Structures are given as structure tokens and as C-alpha cells.
Amino acid sequence: MAARPATANFSTTAAATANAFRQKFNIARHDIAATFPSFRLACNVYSRKDIPSPSLQNSEAEGTSPALVFAHANGFCKEMWEPVIARVDRRWTEREIYAYDCYNEGDSAVLNKDLLENRCNWLTYAQDVLALVDHFKLTKPVGIGHRIIAETLRPGTFGAIVAVDPTMYPKEVNLLVPVEDHPMASLTIRRRDQWKDRDEARESFLKKSLFRAWHPEALDLYLQFGLLDNLDKDGRPGVTLKCPKIQEAMAFAHEGTGLHDAFENLPQLNIPVHFLFGATSDINPSDLVEMKLQRTKYATHEIVKGGHLFPFEEPLDTARDITKFLERYTEAKGPSVDTPTKARL
């Protein structure tokens, strides 16, 4: 897709973006235990301001309007889903919505900064999703993001999954390589991670085509919630990445730890899985898309305009596709693990 210009389209400030979203939603911050007890997970729980009693609404909606659990992409943060959440049809946002930061990214990385090691296991990411589901006592929520393996670890946890350009590969694809040999990891290690302020960070980001393709709200949210105020090496105030770049790089370099399992275990999924693939994604070429669909019993899919990070580029299209799937899913009356109904999805 054509890159957006780096001027007028990005005039919205981070504060204005956040305020517009918060006119509709209350956002409660929770810090909960991760899989490893020494780690914490930062979670946002979103509830509509125009519903007097969200807990009562949740109870009344049980079985018709599933809870939604959002998992973010590597290197980013939970707030990046807000432009999509804001555009999902109202019917599906009347229950509380959950989004969390992986233990080594976003606000969770800040909570765990003194405990993080330079290694990563994608199985831990999946187990942390289960920790969130248990903490909030959710019953068959719809998982949205990249954590398919959580359902294979504990079948019956989710009612359905929306897999957003999921990163998983056949075991024949060797992904577990040293950081310096992995193309994405080596690029991440070399990326800039210190700026004097968010305005300078914005200018720096917009020099890259990746960020110029993003919707203005996504960039503003990354600037506001993906960066952390700090002091530079000379003691001057500045901003840095909340997710340390070594942690992002380790996730790329250790992709084989869990992502092979996710692909190999796709046939075990007995719930609807709706795949959203980016039309120009370099993560999911057409042959791999077909392999994933063929291995998944109750699979549906859509191709969304944009690349691997299409939710940042096209939040409206992403929200529309999620809404359409949720409508079909509810019409099918939430097929259980025992009675999936692929034909109606």
C-alpha cells in the first residue's frame, strides 16, 4: 500500500487520540501474576462508560457476547489495539475487554525490568494468556492476536480464536538461530532506542516506510505508550523504548520455541479459528497461508489490506473483519469443543 505522508495526516497528538478513546471507555489497569511468579503482567480492562454496570452486563451477555482478549505483536504494547477496539461494532464491546503486555514488553517490561534475561520462549507467552484467563475467571473468551498455542496447551479455554497474521511455521523451517544471524533480530539490535523527546522520536519513526504506513492513531499510541521517560547515558532527560530492544530481538531469534509447536498442533484445535492475513505480509506468503488453513479443522479466513502489521495500518478494516466473524460465531451459538459447526462459520 502507498505510504501516508509524514505531515498533515499525523497532526493528531497522542493525548488527543487517547482522550477520544477514553470518552467511550473506562480503562482499569491491573498488574497480575505471570506464569513465572516473579514476573508480573500489566493488563488493561476496557469497559464502556455508557453502560452503568459492566459486571451486570457481562452476566446478562454470557453466551451471546463473548469476552475479548487481545494479544499484541512482538515489540509493541497492549494499547496498540485501541484503534481497532474503538471500531469494533458496539454489540461486541458491551462486555469488558482485556488486553495485556507480554512479560518482557510494554508496561510489563517496566514492571519486570530487574528480572528480565536475554532469552525468550514463545511457550511462556502462551502460558501467560492462560494466566490472564484464570485471573479474571473468563469462560470461553475469544482470543484475538497470535496465541493459538494457548488453546493447544489447554483445550477448551477459548470459544474461538481470531489469529492475526499468525507467526508459526512447520518444523522443517529452522528458526532457532543466533541473534546476529536472524535478519529481524539483527535489525532490531541496531535500531535507535533513545530520543530527547517524543517529538524527536516521531520525526525519527516517520523517516521509515514502516511507520509512515501506519494509521495516525497507531503511531500516536506507540509514541505515548510504547516509549518510556528516562535519562540518557549523559544524565539528560529523554525517552526510550519500553520494550528493551534486546528483548524484542530475542523473541525474533527464538521464534522456534513454541511457534513450531503451534503449527504442528493446528489439527488439534476443535474450535473456530478465523485467520486474518495481511495481503502483503512477508510472514505469511500464499503457500504458507494455504498450509495453515488446510491443517485447521474449523478455519475461515480473510485477506486484509496491508502487511504483517495491518491492524496498525487499517484499524477500520481489521475491526470490520473481527465484527463479521463475531456475528457468524454468535449466530452459530458459540460452538463448543464438543460440537463445532464449521459449516455455519
UniProtKB/TrEMBL annotation:
Residues 68-319 form the AB hydrolase-1 domain. Gene3D superfamilies: alpha/beta hydrolase (3.40.50.1820). This is AB hydrolase-1 domain-containing protein. It comes from Actinomortierella ambigua.
